[in-house]
């Protein structure tokens, strides 16, 4: 697969983004962004993008700094719009994905898009890597409102020892969601997906294969 750098118009600014392009013409894509720190070159995102492209799924990762979820959700929408109108990649649909705060922004963007009249099935689902369900030690402050409104399929990949995502709390939210959802727990991983005694590559391989198999299932359901 190869990479293409692009600038995506966003208001009077532009967002830096990189396409990881599969060898064969892709039908589906994943748009992914980073957490509160870092940018689109965060190693986990680079690893995921390469893995998806090698399996025939286009991946567009972008950088949007700023710690405001609403601002980030707006950026997500600009990127989706850009992809929709792209003549180079005529996709049947995209999945939105994010790491940590990026997954909150993705969830928020999906809610906004689904509440608009021109919702045309372009958004296929949501992938949340280390969804920050609550601030550390503040389990009473659940950030679940967007999750409860979403109706497209959702995959959560979370560390079983994530200090911002208590296992029982996420399972409780998942059971209340109207969207079909799946939780994949990474054993002993913290919020940054670090696991004692395992290399980052090893953990990423597990995450990437979980994400790809879930995407594949959902894409196959669409194609039946």
TrEMBL record:
Residues 30-214 form the KANL3/Tex30 alpha/beta hydrolase-like domain. Pfam families: Abhydrolase_11. This is TEX30 protein. The gene is Tex30. PANTHER family: TESTIS DEVELOPMENT PROTEIN PRTD, TESTIS-EXPRESSED PROTEIN 30. Coiled coil: none annotated. It comes from the Eukaryota. Gene3D superfamilies: alpha/beta hydrolase.
């Amino acid at each position: 697969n190869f990479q293409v750098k692009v600038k995506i118009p966003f208001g009077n600014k532009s967002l830096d983004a990189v396409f990881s392009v599969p060898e064969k013409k892709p039908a589906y894509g994943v748009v992914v962004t980073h957490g509160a720190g870092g940018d689109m070159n965060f190693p986990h995102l680079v690893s995921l993008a390469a893995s998806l492209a090698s399996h025939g799924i286009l991946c567009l990762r972008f950088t949007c700094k700023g710690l405001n979820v609403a601002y980030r959700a707006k950026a997500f929408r600009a990127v989706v719009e850009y992809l929709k109108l792209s003549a180079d990649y005529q996709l049947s649909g995209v999945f939105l994905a994010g790491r940590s705060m990026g997954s909150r922004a993705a969830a928020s963007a999906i809610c906004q898009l689904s509440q608009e009249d021109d919702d045309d099935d372009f958004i296929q689902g949501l992938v949340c890597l280390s969804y920050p369900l609550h601030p550390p030690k503040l389990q009473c402050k659940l950030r679940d409102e967007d999750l409860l409104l979403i109706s497209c399929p959702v995959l959560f990949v979370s560390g079983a020892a994530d200090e911002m995502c208590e296992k029982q709390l996420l399972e409780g939210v998942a059971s209340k969601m109207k969207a079909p959802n799946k939780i994949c727990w990474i054993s002993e991983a913290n919020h940054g997906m670090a696991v004692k005694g395992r290399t980052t590559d090893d953990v990423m391989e597990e995450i990437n294969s979980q994400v790809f198999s879930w995407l594949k299932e959902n894409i196959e359901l669409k194609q039946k």
